[in-house]
């Protein structure tokens, strides 16, 4: 068996995320949450024919994701002022 080790010590270093990285994650959290909601809706209808309620859930999830992405893009465009 061949042992795999990190070439660079920084890769294995136990370091905490920086404040900037945490802020970036926090800013993207609405998009991440909306993506998870859409994925949940898609998984729910994988093995069955979607009902009207399922279709509404999908539309709402897509709309929330689009709104979250738009909001993040506008915030980035305006330099975080929004």
Please give a handful of descriptors for the protein shown.
flat, 82 residues, mainly alpha, 3 helices
Write the layout of secondary structure elements.
Blueprint: H1 9-12, H2 19-44, H3 52-77
Gyration radius, rounded:
19 Å
- Main sheet specs: none
Overall mean confidence score, pLDDT: 87
**What is the helix content?**
55-70%
Q: Which ranges are low-confidence, i.e. pLDDT below 50, for 5 or more consecutive residues?
A: none
Strand-pairing-aware structural class: mainly alpha
* DSSP strand tally: 0
Instruction: Determine the number of helices (DSSP H or I, runs of at least 4 residues).
Output: 3
Order of helices and strands: HHH
Structure, explained:
The protein is mainly alpha-helical and 82 residues long. The chain is built from three helices and no strands. Helix 2 (19-44) packs antiparallel against helix 3 (52-77).
Question: What is shown here, in short?
Answer:
By secondary structure, the chain is an all-alpha fold. It has helices at residues 9-12, 19-44, 52-77. Helix 2 packs antiparallel against helix 3.
């Amino acid at each position: 068996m061949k042992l795999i080790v990190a070439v660079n010590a920084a890769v294995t270093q136990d370091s905490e995320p920086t404040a900037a990285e945490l802020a970036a994650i926090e800013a993207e959290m609405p998009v991440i949450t909306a993506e998870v909601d859409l994925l949940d809706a898609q998984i729910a209808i994988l093995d069955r024919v979607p009902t009207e309620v399922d279709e509404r859930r999908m539309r709402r999830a897509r709309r929330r994701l689009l709104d979250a992405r738009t909001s993040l893009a506008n915030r980035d465009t305006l330099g975080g002022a929004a």
